[in-house]
Backbone:
């Protein structure tokens, strides 16, 4: 299922004068141009600059990268040399008035009051192309290309027309077209219409109704549609008050993007006035009160802190541990916010309120009902998923338990077999669940454990562990067999095993990997990262790297490291 990232670029609170009615993204400069009822705003990624104090209804960038604006006072274009907008004029220097724009092969067409004008790329002049007959009083507020000789003209308060640009002759459009708030022709040539308060309808070129979607026959929550566009063969539908619906025309399936109060990963607002797809296949949404929103397909969702009991965020800012159980529920240990349970299907959190205040440093499974939890400076506890109660596990005896668990250091827990759990610290133990027996884990030969033992991975036949200087394999006799040792000032912070059997190492000197076949460690040089605090292999060709306040992805085959930006996310 697709995930989307939402980035609220600009809104009324940070400089936008009113609701975004239209927009375009400059292919050449990368500027975002937005049109409102009180003028044009140009956003360069840092600041918003304003132009033309007027009601803007259309913005368009042509093939020569010229920005055109349709306003209540006439047709304007951006003059880059003086950084202003000038009123467009015809060959006789008469100011032009238009109400719509349509790209054409060799220029740009403008629809006005009973007239079609054309700007030609060849001579960069604008001239009258044709006058409408017999509908010479028809005000064209939306203009679409029908074929190489014909335009589709829309006016909300009149039925749509087809216009022959060679003669100006008009005829009624072949589909029902009264009170259209928007009209869009998709990549297959089908016509999508939004008749007010009737949902959306799809017609073929002969006017045959192919599909109709509304609240009675689909997942749409409103019939008031304000905008339509297409992206990757899917129809995007912007509504008044219920966000965006994404329709797959092949099977009729529809998913929604909407604002959910308290959910920072949801769409920032629900009233969408316009939708626009840029040259990078990103969707931009202009909204009533939420300003300009950039929507990108992404592969990651970011969650942050929420108030206790709120289901769309974590109970604490800092995550110390994560464990996914057999039912695919994800248990999250926080630094002072206790335990959270996350349901990947509903994308909702359950804050385990009886654990509030606990620093949950490590989590592992025991059976279907119980987890084993390590609480910082408190000890090891069995946690009942149903009753949400703790039961203490005393390591060997009270004195050893106090020595290991209550000296301000972590004890990491890991179930390495169905019968045993590893209690990893400076003095690690293996605990047999049914025999309730503790067995010390010891290093072999002259190798001494350096720091707290950390898990790398385990399967049904083997377990790999590491400390600050060594990678170990744990054998059946609970002995640590050294696989690799680092020297000098290198410190192993985190290690993970990939699908090819390579150990990826995050250290104070960055990223490296160790091969048991060649018995060599190879450093990955880069200019982005100095020290890695945590890493994990996703078994799909990526190594995810955590540094201080940042997240990176290393693509193993491409040998490249990419930074990940933090943005709003939503899953459909």
Residues:
């Amino acid at each position: 299922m697709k995930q989307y990232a939402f980035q609220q670029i600009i809104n009324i609170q940070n400089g936008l004068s009113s609701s975004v009615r239209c927009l375009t993204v400059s292919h050449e400069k990368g500027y975002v141009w937005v049109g409102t009822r009180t003028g044009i705003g140009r956003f360069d990624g840092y600041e918003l600059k304003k132009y033309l104090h007027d009601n803007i209804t259309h913005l368009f960038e042509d093939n020569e990268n010229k920005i055109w604006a349709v306003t209540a006072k006439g047709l304007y274009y951006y003059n880059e040399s003086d950084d202003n907008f000038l009123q467009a004029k015809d060959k006789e220097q008469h100011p032009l008035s238009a109400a719509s724009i349509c790209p054409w092969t060799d220029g740009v067409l403008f629809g006005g009051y009973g007239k079609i004008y054309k700007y030609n790329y060849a001579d960069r002049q604008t001239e009258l192309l044709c006058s409408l007959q017999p509908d010479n009083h028809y005000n064209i507020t939306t203009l679409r290309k029908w074929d190489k000789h014909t335009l589709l003209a829309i006016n909300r308060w009149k039925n749509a027309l087809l216009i022959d640009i060679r003669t100006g002759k008009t005829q009624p459009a072949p589909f029902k077209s009264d009170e259209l708030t928007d009209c869009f022709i998709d990549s297959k040539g089908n016509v999508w219409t939004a008749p007010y308060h009737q949902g959306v309808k799809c017609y073929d070129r002969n006017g045959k109704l192919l599909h109709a979607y509304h609240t009675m026959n689909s997942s749409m929550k409103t019939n008031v549609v304000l905008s339509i566009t297409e992206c990757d063969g899917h129809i995007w539908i912007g509504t008044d008050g219920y966000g965006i619906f994404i329709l797959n025309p092949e099977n009729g399936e529809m998913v929604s993007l909407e604002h959910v109060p308290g959910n920072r990963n949801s769409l920032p607002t629900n009233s969408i006035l316009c939708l626009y797809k840029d040259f990078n296949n990103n969707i931009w949404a202009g909204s009533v009160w939420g300003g300009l929103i950039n929507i990108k397909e992404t592969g990651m969702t970011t969650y942050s802190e929420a108030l206790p009991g709120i289901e769309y965020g974590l109970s604490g800012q800092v995550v110390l541990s994560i464990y996914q159980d057999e039912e695919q529920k994800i248990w999250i240990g926080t630094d002072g916010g206790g335990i959270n349970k996350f349901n990947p299907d509903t994308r909702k959190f359950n804050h385990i309120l009886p654990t509030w205040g606990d620093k949950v440093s490590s989590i592992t499974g025991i059976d279907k009902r119980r987890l084993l939890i390590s609480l910082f400076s408190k000890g090891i506890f069995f946690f009942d998923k149903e009753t949400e109660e703790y039961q203490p596990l005393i390591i060997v005896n009270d004195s050893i338990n106090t020595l290991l668990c209550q000296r301000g250091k972590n004890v990491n827990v890991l179930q390495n077999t169905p019968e045993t759990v590893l209690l990893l610290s400076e003095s690690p133990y293996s605990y047999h669940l049914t025999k309730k027996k503790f067995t010390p884990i010891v290093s072999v030969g002259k190798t001494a454990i350096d720091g707290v033992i950390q898990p790398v991975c385990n399967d049904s036949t083997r377990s790999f562990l590491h400390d600050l200087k060594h990678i170990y394999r744990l054998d059946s006799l609970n002995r640590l067999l050294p696989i690799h040792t680092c020297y000098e000032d290198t410190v192993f912070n985190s290690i993970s095993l990939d699908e090819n059997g390579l150990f990826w190492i995050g250290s104070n000197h960055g990223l490296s990997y160790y091969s048991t076949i060649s018995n060599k460690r190879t450093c990955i040089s880069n200019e982005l990262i100095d020290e890695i605090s945590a890493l994990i292999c996703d078994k799909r060709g990526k190594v995810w790297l955590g540094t201080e306040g940042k997240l990176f992805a290393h693509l193993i085959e491409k040998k490249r490291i990419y930074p990940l930006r933090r943005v709003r996310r939503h899953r459909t």
